[in-house]
Automatic annotation (TrEMBL):
Keyword Mitochondrion (UniProt): no
Protein name: Threonylcarbamoyladenosine tRNA methylthiotransferase MtaB
Gene Ontology terms, MF aspect: 4 iron, 4 sulfur cluster binding; metal ion binding; tRNA (N(6)-L-threonylcarbamoyladenosine(37)-C(2))-methylthiotransferase activity
Entries under Gene3D superfamilies matching the protein: Methylthiotransferase, N-terminal domain (3.40.50.12160), tm_1862 like domain (3.80.30.20)
Cofactors (names): [4Fe-4S] cluster
Organism the protein comes from: Candidatus Kentrum sp. MB
Keyword set includes Transport: no
All copies of domain MTTase N-terminal, residue ranges: 3-116
InterPro entries linked: Elp3/MiaA/NifB-like_rSAM, Methylthiotransferase, Methylthiotransferase_CS, Methylthiotransferase_N, Methylthiotransferase_N_sf, MiaB-like_bact, rSAM, rSAM_horseshoe
SUPFAM superfamilies: Radical SAM enzymes (SSF102114)
Length: 454
Protein backbone atom coordinates (compact mmCIF):
# COMPACT_ATOMS: atom_id res chain seq x y z
CA UNK A 1 0.00 0.00 0.00
CA UNK A 2 1.31 3.44 -0.87
CA UNK A 3 0.78 6.35 1.47
CA UNK A 4 -0.53 9.68 0.26
CA UNK A 5 1.80 12.65 0.69
CA UNK A 6 1.03 16.33 0.11
CA UNK A 7 3.42 19.27 0.00
CA UNK A 8 3.15 22.82 1.28
CA UNK A 9 6.05 25.01 0.15
CA UNK A 10 6.88 28.56 1.19
CA UNK A 11 9.55 30.97 0.02
CA UNK A 12 11.95 31.12 -2.88
CA UNK A 13 12.50 28.99 -5.97
CA UNK A 14 15.26 27.11 -4.15
CA UNK A 15 12.63 25.86 -1.73
CA UNK A 16 10.46 24.85 -4.69
CA UNK A 17 13.35 22.81 -6.06
CA UNK A 18 14.07 21.25 -2.67
CA UNK A 19 10.44 20.18 -2.42
CA UNK A 20 10.77 18.47 -5.79
CA UNK A 21 13.83 16.63 -4.45
CA UNK A 22 11.82 15.37 -1.47
CA UNK A 23 8.88 14.41 -3.67
CA UNK A 24 11.14 12.43 -6.00
CA UNK A 25 12.77 10.57 -3.12
CA UNK A 26 9.44 9.64 -1.56
CA UNK A 27 7.82 8.53 -4.82
CA UNK A 28 10.85 6.50 -5.91
CA UNK A 29 10.82 4.66 -2.58
CA UNK A 30 7.57 3.04 -3.75
CA UNK A 31 5.93 3.88 -0.43
CA UNK A 32 4.33 7.22 -1.32
CA UNK A 33 2.24 8.86 -4.01
CA UNK A 34 1.74 12.60 -4.27
CA UNK A 35 -1.69 14.18 -3.87
CA UNK A 36 -2.65 17.85 -3.94
CA UNK A 37 -2.72 19.87 -0.75
CA UNK A 38 -6.51 20.08 -1.06
CA UNK A 39 -6.81 16.30 -0.77
CA UNK A 40 -6.60 14.11 2.30
CA UNK A 41 -3.07 12.78 2.86
CA UNK A 42 -1.33 10.49 5.32
CA UNK A 43 1.80 12.64 5.44
CA UNK A 44 2.24 16.39 4.87
CA UNK A 45 5.65 17.89 4.13
CA UNK A 46 5.89 21.60 4.98
CA UNK A 47 8.96 23.27 3.47
CA UNK A 48 9.44 26.53 5.35
CA UNK A 49 10.96 29.96 4.75
CA UNK A 50 12.38 32.17 7.50
CA UNK A 51 13.25 35.38 5.67
CA UNK A 52 10.85 37.44 7.83
CA UNK A 53 8.83 37.12 11.02
CA UNK A 54 5.75 36.92 8.81
CA UNK A 55 7.26 33.95 6.95
CA UNK A 56 7.63 32.12 10.26
CA UNK A 57 4.08 32.95 11.30
CA UNK A 58 2.68 31.82 7.96
CA UNK A 59 4.41 28.44 8.28
CA UNK A 60 3.13 27.92 11.83
CA UNK A 61 -0.38 28.83 10.74
CA UNK A 62 -0.23 26.31 7.87
CA UNK A 63 0.97 23.55 10.20
CA UNK A 64 -1.82 24.24 12.68
CA UNK A 65 -4.38 24.32 9.88
CA UNK A 66 -3.24 20.97 8.50
CA UNK A 67 -3.25 19.44 11.97
CA UNK A 68 -6.72 20.80 12.68
CA UNK A 69 -8.21 19.62 9.40
CA UNK A 70 -6.33 16.28 9.30
CA UNK A 71 -5.76 15.29 12.95
CA UNK A 72 -4.49 11.80 12.07
CA UNK A 73 -1.98 13.01 9.48
CA UNK A 74 1.75 13.13 10.18
CA UNK A 75 3.50 16.44 9.50
CA UNK A 76 7.16 16.70 8.52
CA UNK A 77 8.77 20.14 8.59
CA UNK A 78 11.93 21.17 6.75
CA UNK A 79 13.46 24.30 5.22
CA UNK A 80 15.14 27.40 6.65
CA UNK A 81 12.75 27.85 9.59
CA UNK A 82 13.35 24.21 10.54
CA UNK A 83 17.10 24.80 10.35
CA UNK A 84 16.86 27.93 12.52
CA UNK A 85 14.31 26.91 15.17
CA UNK A 86 13.73 23.16 15.02
CA UNK A 87 12.64 22.73 18.65
CA UNK A 88 10.02 25.45 18.25
CA UNK A 89 8.48 23.66 15.28
CA UNK A 90 8.69 20.20 16.87
CA UNK A 91 6.26 21.39 19.56
CA UNK A 92 3.51 22.20 17.07
CA UNK A 93 0.53 19.81 16.83
CA UNK A 94 0.87 16.97 14.35
CA UNK A 95 4.61 17.42 13.78
CA UNK A 96 6.43 14.07 13.92
CA UNK A 97 9.73 15.03 12.31
CA UNK A 98 11.79 18.19 11.77
CA UNK A 99 14.58 18.02 9.16
CA UNK A 100 17.27 20.62 8.51
CA UNK A 101 18.07 21.81 4.99
CA UNK A 102 20.94 19.32 4.65
CA UNK A 103 18.87 16.43 5.99
CA UNK A 104 15.92 16.40 3.60
CA UNK A 105 17.61 13.75 1.43
CA UNK A 106 17.33 11.38 4.41
CA UNK A 107 13.58 11.79 4.56
CA UNK A 108 12.65 8.24 3.56
CA UNK A 109 14.92 6.56 6.12
CA UNK A 110 13.98 9.04 8.85
CA UNK A 111 10.27 8.49 8.25
CA UNK A 112 10.84 4.76 8.54
CA UNK A 113 12.59 5.34 11.87
CA UNK A 114 9.93 7.51 13.46
CA UNK A 115 6.88 5.90 11.89
CA UNK A 116 6.00 2.22 11.96
CA UNK A 117 3.63 0.13 9.88
CA UNK A 118 0.58 -1.08 11.78
CA UNK A 119 -0.59 -4.22 10.00
CA UNK A 120 -3.06 -5.31 12.65
CA UNK A 121 -5.93 -3.59 10.89
CA UNK A 122 -7.01 -4.03 7.31
CA UNK A 123 -4.52 -2.39 5.01
CA UNK A 124 -1.61 -0.41 6.39
CA UNK A 125 -1.31 2.97 7.98
CA UNK A 126 1.42 5.09 9.51
CA UNK A 127 1.51 5.29 13.31
CA UNK A 128 4.08 6.89 15.60
CA UNK A 129 6.78 4.55 16.89
CA UNK A 130 7.01 4.98 20.70
CA UNK A 131 10.53 3.53 20.62
CA UNK A 132 11.83 6.37 18.47
CA UNK A 133 11.67 9.62 20.46
CA UNK A 134 14.10 11.61 18.30
CA UNK A 135 12.07 13.92 16.08
CA UNK A 136 14.67 16.56 15.22
CA UNK A 137 17.41 15.92 12.64
CA UNK A 138 19.38 19.10 11.91
CA UNK A 139 22.93 18.99 10.52
CA UNK A 140 25.15 22.00 9.73
CA UNK A 141 23.79 23.59 6.53
CA UNK A 142 27.07 23.42 4.61
CA UNK A 143 26.92 19.63 4.85
CA UNK A 144 24.37 19.93 2.06
CA UNK A 145 26.13 19.62 -1.29
CA UNK A 146 24.28 18.66 -4.45
CA UNK A 147 22.99 15.09 -4.20
CA UNK A 148 22.12 14.13 -7.73
CA UNK A 149 18.49 13.13 -7.37
CA UNK A 150 17.27 12.37 -10.93
CA UNK A 151 14.42 14.89 -11.00
CA UNK A 152 12.85 14.49 -14.42
CA UNK A 153 9.37 15.81 -13.70
CA UNK A 154 7.93 18.52 -11.51
CA UNK A 155 4.53 19.42 -10.15
CA UNK A 156 4.42 22.43 -12.50
CA UNK A 157 3.76 20.92 -15.91
CA UNK A 158 5.31 23.69 -18.06
CA UNK A 159 8.05 25.41 -16.06
CA UNK A 160 10.90 23.60 -14.34
CA UNK A 161 13.18 25.08 -11.68
CA UNK A 162 16.80 23.92 -11.72
CA UNK A 163 18.99 24.65 -8.71
CA UNK A 164 22.59 25.48 -9.61
CA UNK A 165 23.87 27.11 -6.41
CA UNK A 166 23.08 27.21 -2.70
CA UNK A 167 24.27 29.18 0.31
CA UNK A 168 25.78 32.65 0.51
CA UNK A 169 29.12 34.19 1.49
CA UNK A 170 27.57 37.62 1.96
CA UNK A 171 27.37 39.57 5.20
CA UNK A 172 24.16 41.57 4.76
CA UNK A 173 23.28 42.86 8.21
CA UNK A 174 19.58 41.97 7.97
CA UNK A 175 20.00 38.41 6.71
CA UNK A 176 20.39 34.98 8.31
CA UNK A 177 20.61 32.95 5.09
CA UNK A 178 24.31 32.12 5.66
CA UNK A 179 23.24 30.64 9.01
CA UNK A 180 20.44 28.54 7.55
CA UNK A 181 21.94 27.67 4.15
CA UNK A 182 25.68 27.77 4.80
CA UNK A 183 28.44 29.04 2.56
CA UNK A 184 28.09 29.22 -1.20
CA UNK A 185 28.27 25.91 -3.09
CA UNK A 186 27.98 25.43 -6.84
CA UNK A 187 26.65 22.48 -8.77
CA UNK A 188 28.81 20.81 -11.40
CA UNK A 189 27.93 22.21 -14.86
CA UNK A 190 27.77 18.72 -16.36
CA UNK A 191 25.05 17.72 -13.90
CA UNK A 192 23.10 20.90 -14.62
CA UNK A 193 23.16 20.25 -18.35
CA UNK A 194 22.14 16.61 -17.88
CA UNK A 195 19.15 17.57 -15.76
CA UNK A 196 17.94 20.27 -18.14
CA UNK A 197 18.20 17.84 -21.05
CA UNK A 198 16.09 15.31 -19.11
CA UNK A 199 13.48 17.94 -18.32
CA UNK A 200 13.29 19.10 -21.94
CA UNK A 201 12.97 15.48 -23.09
CA UNK A 202 10.02 15.15 -20.70
CA UNK A 203 8.19 18.08 -22.27
CA UNK A 204 9.18 21.06 -20.15
CA UNK A 205 9.21 24.21 -22.24
CA UNK A 206 10.74 26.66 -19.76
CA UNK A 207 13.62 26.26 -17.33
CA UNK A 208 14.35 28.68 -14.49
CA UNK A 209 17.89 28.76 -13.08
CA UNK A 210 17.76 29.25 -9.32
CA UNK A 211 20.27 29.92 -6.58
CA UNK A 212 20.48 31.67 -3.25
CA UNK A 213 23.21 33.90 -4.74
CA UNK A 214 23.46 33.21 -8.47
CA UNK A 215 26.38 35.59 -8.80
CA UNK A 216 28.54 33.25 -6.72
CA UNK A 217 28.10 30.42 -9.22
CA UNK A 218 31.39 28.70 -10.04
CA UNK A 219 33.51 30.58 -7.49
CA UNK A 220 34.07 27.40 -5.47
CA UNK A 221 34.63 25.01 -8.39
CA UNK A 222 38.28 25.86 -8.96
CA UNK A 223 40.17 27.13 -11.98
CA UNK A 224 38.53 26.44 -15.30
CA UNK A 225 35.01 26.52 -13.87
CA UNK A 226 32.51 28.31 -16.11
CA UNK A 227 31.17 31.71 -15.18
CA UNK A 228 27.43 32.17 -14.88
CA UNK A 229 27.42 33.81 -18.32
CA UNK A 230 29.26 30.87 -19.89
CA UNK A 231 26.87 28.39 -18.26
CA UNK A 232 23.90 30.34 -19.60
CA UNK A 233 25.42 30.31 -23.08
CA UNK A 234 25.76 26.52 -22.94
CA UNK A 235 22.20 26.05 -21.69
CA UNK A 236 20.85 28.15 -24.55
CA UNK A 237 22.25 25.61 -27.04
CA UNK A 238 20.14 22.74 -25.65
CA UNK A 239 17.82 21.48 -28.44
CA UNK A 240 14.13 21.68 -27.62
CA UNK A 241 14.46 24.27 -24.86
CA UNK A 242 11.86 26.91 -25.64
CA UNK A 243 12.43 29.46 -22.90
CA UNK A 244 15.08 30.08 -20.28
CA UNK A 245 14.76 32.40 -17.28
CA UNK A 246 16.86 33.53 -14.33
CA UNK A 247 15.50 33.73 -10.81
CA UNK A 248 16.46 36.60 -8.50
CA UNK A 249 19.99 37.83 -9.14
CA UNK A 250 22.11 40.47 -7.41
CA UNK A 251 23.16 43.66 -9.23
CA UNK A 252 26.84 42.71 -9.21
CA UNK A 253 26.17 39.39 -10.92
CA UNK A 254 24.72 40.83 -14.13
CA UNK A 255 27.65 41.16 -16.49
CA UNK A 256 27.76 42.79 -19.91
CA UNK A 257 27.92 39.26 -21.36
CA UNK A 258 24.65 38.25 -19.66
CA UNK A 259 22.95 41.39 -20.97
CA UNK A 260 24.32 40.69 -24.46
CA UNK A 261 23.03 37.10 -24.35
CA UNK A 262 19.57 38.22 -23.29
CA UNK A 263 19.48 40.86 -26.02
CA UNK A 264 20.53 38.43 -28.76
CA UNK A 265 19.00 35.08 -27.77
CA UNK A 266 15.24 34.82 -28.31
CA UNK A 267 14.79 31.94 -25.85
CA UNK A 268 16.46 33.93 -23.02
CA UNK A 269 13.45 35.55 -21.30
CA UNK A 270 13.64 39.33 -21.08
CA UNK A 271 13.21 39.46 -17.33
CA UNK A 272 15.42 40.28 -14.37
CA UNK A 273 14.51 40.37 -10.69
CA UNK A 274 17.26 42.46 -9.08
CA UNK A 275 17.03 43.28 -5.36
CA UNK A 276 17.76 46.93 -4.54
CA UNK A 277 16.56 46.91 -0.88
CA UNK A 278 16.87 50.70 -0.47
CA UNK A 279 17.23 53.80 -2.61
CA UNK A 280 19.50 55.45 -0.05
CA UNK A 281 23.26 54.90 -0.06
CA UNK A 282 23.36 55.52 3.68
CA UNK A 283 20.88 52.71 4.33
CA UNK A 284 22.58 50.39 1.82
CA UNK A 285 25.82 50.88 3.77
CA UNK A 286 24.03 49.99 7.04
CA UNK A 287 22.71 46.88 5.29
CA UNK A 288 26.25 45.92 4.14
CA UNK A 289 25.12 45.73 0.53
CA UNK A 290 27.93 45.70 -2.04
CA UNK A 291 26.70 48.37 -4.47
CA UNK A 292 25.52 51.97 -4.53
CA UNK A 293 22.25 53.38 -5.81
CA UNK A 294 24.10 54.98 -8.74
CA UNK A 295 25.55 51.60 -9.73
CA UNK A 296 22.08 50.03 -9.58
CA UNK A 297 20.59 52.85 -11.67
CA UNK A 298 23.35 52.53 -14.28
CA UNK A 299 22.73 48.78 -14.52
CA UNK A 300 18.99 49.26 -15.05
CA UNK A 301 19.64 51.84 -17.78
CA UNK A 302 22.16 49.52 -19.47
CA UNK A 303 19.62 46.70 -19.45
CA UNK A 304 16.72 48.71 -20.83
CA UNK A 305 18.92 50.38 -23.46
CA UNK A 306 19.97 46.95 -24.75
CA UNK A 307 16.69 45.08 -24.19
CA UNK A 308 13.48 46.95 -25.02
CA UNK A 309 10.48 46.05 -22.84
CA UNK A 310 12.60 44.00 -20.45
CA UNK A 311 10.57 43.22 -17.34
CA UNK A 312 12.50 44.31 -14.27
CA UNK A 313 11.42 43.67 -10.70
CA UNK A 314 13.08 44.55 -7.44
CA UNK A 315 12.85 44.01 -3.68
CA UNK A 316 12.68 46.86 -1.18
CA UNK A 317 12.94 46.57 2.61
CA UNK A 318 10.75 49.21 4.24
CA UNK A 319 11.72 50.66 7.61
CA UNK A 320 15.21 49.24 8.03
CA UNK A 321 16.72 50.49 11.33
CA UNK A 322 17.81 54.09 10.89
CA UNK A 323 15.67 54.69 7.79
CA UNK A 324 14.27 58.19 8.21
CA UNK A 325 11.37 59.70 6.34
CA UNK A 326 13.92 61.47 4.13
CA UNK A 327 15.64 58.17 3.33
CA UNK A 328 12.30 56.65 2.40
CA UNK A 329 11.33 59.61 0.20
CA UNK A 330 14.66 59.20 -1.58
CA UNK A 331 13.83 55.53 -2.25
CA UNK A 332 10.40 56.45 -3.63
CA UNK A 333 11.89 59.11 -5.90
CA UNK A 334 14.62 56.81 -7.23
CA UNK A 335 12.20 53.96 -7.95
CA UNK A 336 9.68 56.30 -9.57
CA UNK A 337 12.33 57.51 -12.00
CA UNK A 338 13.57 54.05 -12.97
CA UNK A 339 11.98 51.75 -15.62
CA UNK A 340 11.04 49.15 -13.00
CA UNK A 341 7.97 47.09 -13.94
CA UNK A 342 7.08 45.76 -10.49
CA UNK A 343 8.21 45.92 -6.86
CA UNK A 344 8.24 43.46 -4.02
CA UNK A 345 8.26 45.73 -0.95
CA UNK A 346 8.03 44.29 2.54
CA UNK A 347 8.43 45.68 6.06
CA UNK A 348 11.76 45.12 7.77
CA UNK A 349 11.71 42.16 10.13
CA UNK A 350 14.47 41.63 12.69
CA UNK A 351 15.95 38.15 12.28
CA UNK A 352 17.36 36.43 15.36
CA UNK A 353 21.15 36.51 15.28
CA UNK A 354 21.45 39.08 12.49
CA UNK A 355 23.59 42.20 13.19
CA UNK A 356 20.66 44.51 12.39
CA UNK A 357 18.62 42.94 15.18
CA UNK A 358 20.61 45.02 17.66
CA UNK A 359 20.79 48.24 15.64
CA UNK A 360 19.59 51.47 17.20
CA UNK A 361 16.81 53.61 15.72
CA UNK A 362 14.38 50.78 15.02
CA UNK A 363 11.45 52.06 12.94
CA UNK A 364 8.02 51.52 14.56
CA UNK A 365 6.02 48.63 13.13
CA UNK A 366 3.13 50.78 11.92
CA UNK A 367 5.51 53.10 10.08
CA UNK A 368 7.18 50.12 8.38
CA UNK A 369 3.77 48.88 7.25
CA UNK A 370 2.75 52.35 6.07
CA UNK A 371 5.87 52.69 3.92
CA UNK A 372 5.25 49.23 2.49
CA UNK A 373 1.73 50.28 1.47
CA UNK A 374 3.13 53.33 -0.33
CA UNK A 375 5.51 51.19 -2.36
CA UNK A 376 2.85 48.60 -3.12
CA UNK A 377 0.73 51.36 -4.64
CA UNK A 378 3.73 52.59 -6.62
CA UNK A 379 4.26 49.03 -7.86
CA UNK A 380 0.65 48.81 -9.04
CA UNK A 381 0.99 52.12 -10.88
CA UNK A 382 4.26 51.21 -12.58
CA UNK A 383 3.13 47.70 -13.47
CA UNK A 384 -0.10 48.92 -15.04
CA UNK A 385 1.82 51.45 -17.13
CA UNK A 386 4.17 48.67 -18.25
CA UNK A 387 1.24 46.43 -19.19
CA UNK A 388 -0.54 49.21 -21.09
CA UNK A 389 2.47 49.53 -23.39
CA UNK A 390 1.57 46.07 -24.72
CA UNK A 391 -2.05 46.91 -25.63
CA UNK A 392 -2.69 46.17 -29.30
CA UNK A 393 0.62 44.34 -29.68
CA UNK A 394 1.19 40.65 -30.38
CA UNK A 395 3.22 38.91 -27.69
CA UNK A 396 4.53 35.38 -27.24
CA UNK A 397 2.94 33.52 -24.35
CA UNK A 398 3.92 30.21 -22.79
CA UNK A 399 0.54 28.71 -21.94
CA UNK A 400 0.42 26.87 -18.64
CA UNK A 401 -3.10 26.17 -17.44
CA UNK A 402 -6.75 26.62 -18.21
CA UNK A 403 -9.85 27.12 -16.14
CA UNK A 404 -13.46 28.11 -16.46
CA UNK A 405 -14.08 31.84 -16.68
CA UNK A 406 -17.29 33.83 -16.40
CA UNK A 407 -20.36 33.44 -18.57
CA UNK A 408 -18.95 35.76 -21.19
CA UNK A 409 -15.49 34.20 -21.36
CA UNK A 410 -16.14 30.45 -21.21
CA UNK A 411 -12.89 28.58 -20.75
CA UNK A 412 -9.76 30.70 -20.40
CA UNK A 413 -6.14 29.70 -20.87
CA UNK A 414 -3.39 31.42 -18.87
CA UNK A 415 0.30 31.89 -19.44
CA UNK A 416 3.25 34.24 -19.16
CA UNK A 417 5.17 36.42 -21.57
CA UNK A 418 8.94 36.27 -21.52
CA UNK A 419 9.02 39.68 -19.79
CA UNK A 420 6.90 38.33 -16.95
CA UNK A 421 3.37 39.48 -17.70
CA UNK A 422 0.45 37.17 -16.99
CA UNK A 423 -1.91 36.79 -19.95
CA UNK A 424 -5.42 35.35 -20.09
CA UNK A 425 -6.33 33.97 -23.52
CA UNK A 426 -10.03 33.71 -24.34
CA UNK A 427 -9.52 30.71 -26.60
CA UNK A 428 -8.10 27.34 -25.60
CA UNK A 429 -5.86 25.81 -28.29
CA UNK A 430 -5.48 22.06 -28.64
CA UNK A 431 -1.91 22.28 -27.35
CA UNK A 432 -1.89 24.24 -24.09
CA UNK A 433 1.74 23.55 -23.25
CA UNK A 434 3.66 25.67 -25.69
CA UNK A 435 4.42 29.13 -27.05
CA UNK A 436 1.55 30.95 -28.73
CA UNK A 437 1.29 34.32 -30.44
CA UNK A 438 -1.39 36.34 -28.63
CA UNK A 439 -2.78 39.74 -29.59
CA UNK A 440 -3.40 41.85 -26.48
CA UNK A 441 -6.89 43.37 -26.43
CA UNK A 442 -7.36 44.43 -22.80
CA UNK A 443 -5.49 45.31 -19.65
CA UNK A 444 -6.96 43.62 -16.57
CA UNK A 445 -6.42 44.46 -12.91
CA UNK A 446 -3.41 42.17 -12.62
CA UNK A 447 -2.43 41.15 -16.13
CA UNK A 448 -3.35 41.21 -19.80
CA UNK A 449 -6.17 39.70 -21.86
CA UNK A 450 -5.81 38.65 -25.46
CA UNK A 451 -6.81 36.38 -28.31
CA UNK A 452 -4.78 33.95 -30.35
CA UNK A 453 -3.19 35.76 -33.26
CA UNK A 454 -4.33 34.43 -36.61
Amino acid sequence: MTNRVAFCTFGCRINQYDTETIRTLLEESGRFRTVSLRESADVYVVNTCSVTTQSDATARKAIRRISGERPTAKIIVTGCYAQRASAELAKLPGVVLVLGVADRIRIVSEIEKCLAIDSSSQGQKWVEDPNFPQRIIVSPPSADTFPEIPIAKMMDRSRAVVKIQDGCNGVCSFCIVPQTRGRSRSREPKKIMEQINRLVDNGYREVVLAGIHLGDYGSDLGSGAPTLAKLIGEILTIPGLVRFRLSSIGPGAISEEIIRLMASEEKFARHFHIPLQSGSDEILARMNRDYTVAQFERLIRDITDAIPDCGIGTDIICGFPGESEAHFRETVARITALPISYLHPFPYSARPGSPAEGYANQVPSEERKSRTRVLKQLSRTKNRAFRERHLGHTVTVLLEDQRKGGKETGRVCFGWTDNYLRVAVREVPADTNGLKAVRITEVSDDGLIGVLAS
